[in-house]
# Entry
Amino acid sequence: MPERVVELLLARLSYQPGRRVLDIGHANSMECHRNMVRSLPEPRRLTGLDIADPVYDASKLYERSVRASVDSTPFEGGAFDLIWCISSFEHFGMDNTGYRPGFAVDERIPDAALAEMTRILDANGTLLLTVPYGRYEDHGWFRNFDARLLGRVLEQLRPLGPTRDLYFAHDAAEGWRAAEPERLRDVGYNDQKNAGASAVAAAVFRKAP
# Structure
């Protein structure tokens, strides 16, 4: 079972009808992600953001589908009450030519994207950011985050508002469970052979007024 089992539950728990939601990386979302969006109670005020065009009819799920890079969005400050960055941040700055030909690798994008997400989040708004976690691995088009990389994200968020970090690990026999981060230091992305990450970390940030 891929990490969406955990990530989409966290996203669903963060949702309230009528909140202005930005869903980052929606263009190639898995069917389970789209089904979660379909299940959300009205009124739904969702905007999708991606560097690529959606591979499905996004107009049935989102009020708007915007093609732009997350480090430089067209949105005004405080435009959203809730931002989902679900299994997308690990791709930022990496080789994304598979999603959009000619998209250049740029190590500055993750920091710029994080600054942009906090800018367009309204006061008291929530950012949910999830990444595959464990031992650092560079897969070319994405990275498996380790404590150092995630720590960099948390260090940028915590001065701006309360931030929680949550960790989960997959077991072939028992599925997904909460885990202590220290026990995940040597976990590789494909260790569980479960069509996705073997562990996942989530940062839940609330922007201070």
User: Anything to note?
Assistant: Residues 109-120 form the longest helix (12 residues).
